[in-house]
């Protein structure tokens, strides 16, 4: 069968960050883009050889019991016990069971969304995925409000909610969780040992206050499977970002996939500064050796898929 060319060139990525954003020129949202149904289906089939979003989106109740021991994916020598709270919050069946959507939005957190006016367009999609509990209310015009699934890396509790040091921060998190109003809250609980307490705090809060969210905890194999898929396609990522994980999962249940807020560069296409996140003052970290992510490399792959019509990237204003 024909190969899906994701990493446009056969040579390793040339690292020249001085004018990275220029090289990544993407046509404005209004420019002609056509969905390539054949290619999308081929990609779905290929990804299914590595993982199945319906299964890997969450560990299910039937597969674990309280007291079971799990080795963290990135800290193999560290273990955790499955707590009663975690067990109580495991779904009985996949939150994506038999789900199919016409169009999905995956909203990344880049500052490129600011002044995009993309909110209304994002909200028209049948299924909207957001990352890391990013705030929406104050930014609705640019990012929309609809949220069907939102991810929460445990580190968010530290970064955005001051590790719940006092009642004010606990209340803030609680309000954010209540606002999710029945959507899926996706918590990578088994990745790194650093998240241990934070995951437990959130679980406790959800149960204690009967928060209306459908919790999901990605399977132990998801990360390696996603990495495997992209490596096979010559995209040499170290550790997939949340955004790339979401795209990879979405191929299973979305016919057309629209990406917003994916722009891991400090300058936009007109050389204006872009914030790393649309909602906070976090700085670009991906250039550091310590960062496990390779966002510009991921972006290059997504851009190539955009050009082939497998997904649509919006990096400027919406009409
Ligand atoms: N993203 C992007 N450009 C940015 C910021 C984010 O393309 N300037 C995309 C990435 O795919 C990222 C997603 O949006 O995974 C969500 O952003 P963020 O919350 O920063 O996610 P991560 O970096 O994955 O979070 P973490 O470092 O906690 O893993």
What would you say this structure looks like, in words?
This protein has 319 residues and is an alpha/beta fold. 31% of the residues lie in helices and 11% in strands. The chain has helices spanning 20-23, 37-48, 53-56, 84-89, 119-123, 140-143, 155-161, 167-178, 196-208, 222-232, 242-250, 295-307; strands spanning 69-71, 79-81, 101-107, 127-130, 149-151, 184-186, 214-216, 254-260, 312-314. A seven-stranded parallel β-sheet has the order 7-6-5-4-3-8-9. Mean pLDDT is 91; it is low at 8-19. Residues 108-110, 131-132, 153, 155, 241-244, 261-264, 276-277, 293, 295 line the site of cytidine-5'-triphosphate. Cytidine-5'-triphosphate binds at residues 108-110, 131-132, 153, 155, 241-244, 261-264, 276-277, 293, 295.
Keywords:
two-stranded antiparallel sheet; alpha/beta; 11% strand; globular; binds cytidine-5'-triphosphate; 319 residues; 7-stranded parallel β-sheet; 12 helices
- The tally of helices reads 12
What percent strand? 5-15%
Contiguous low-pLDDT stretches (5 residues minimum) are 8-19
> How far is it from the N-terminal to the C-terminal residue, by CA?
38 Å
| Total beta strand runs | 9
Mean pLDDT: 91
- What ligands does this structure carry? cytidine-5'-triphosphate
Rg measurement, Å:
19 Å
Reported for the largest beta sheet, the result is: 7 strands, parallel
* Secondary structural class: alpha/beta
Shape: globular
Q: Secondary-structure element order, as H and E? A: HHHEEHEHEHEHHEHEHHEHE
Kindly state the percentage of residues in helix: 25-40%
The strand line-up of the biggest sheet is 7-6-5-4-3-8-9
């Amino acid at each position: 069968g024909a190969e899906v060319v994701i990493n446009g060139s056969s040579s390793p990525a040339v690292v020249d960050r001085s004018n990275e954003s220029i090289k990544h020129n993407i046509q404005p949202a209004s420019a002609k883009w056509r969905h390539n149904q054949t290619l999308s289906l081929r990609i779905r089939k290929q990804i299914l050889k590595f993982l199945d979003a319906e299964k890997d989106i969450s560990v299910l109740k039937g597969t674990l019991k309280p007291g079971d021991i799990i080795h963290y994916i990135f800290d193999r020598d560290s273990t955790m016990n499955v707590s009663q709270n975690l067990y109580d919050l495991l779904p009985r069946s996949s939150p994506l069971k038999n789900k199919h959507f016409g169009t999905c939005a995956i909203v990344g957190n880049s500052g490129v969304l600011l002044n995009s006016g993309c909110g209304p367009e994002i909200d028209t999609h049948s299924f909207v995925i957001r990352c890391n509990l990013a705030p929406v209310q104050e930014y609705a015009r640019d990012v929309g409000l609809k949220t069907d699934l939102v991810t929460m890396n445990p580190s968010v509790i530290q970064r955005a909610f001051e590790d719940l040091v006092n009642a004010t921060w606990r209340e803030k998190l609680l309000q954010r969780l209540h606002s999710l109003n029945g959507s899926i809250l996706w918590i990578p609980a088994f990745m790194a040992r650093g998240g241990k307490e934070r995951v437990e705090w959130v679980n406790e809060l959800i149960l204690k206050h009967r928060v209306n969210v459908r919790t999901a905890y990605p399977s132990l194999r998801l990360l390696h499977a996603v990495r495997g898929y992209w490596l096979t396609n010559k995209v040499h990522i170290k550790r997939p970002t949340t955004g790339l994980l979401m795209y990879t999962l979405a191929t299973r249940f979305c016919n057309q996939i629209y990406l917003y807020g994916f722009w891991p560069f400090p300058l936009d296409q007109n050389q204006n500064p872009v914030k790393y996140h649309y909602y906070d003052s976090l700085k670009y970290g991906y250039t550091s050796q310590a960062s496990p992510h390779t966002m510009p490399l991921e972006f290059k792959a997504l851009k190539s898929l955009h050009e082939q019509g497998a997904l649509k990237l919006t990096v400027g204003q919406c009409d």
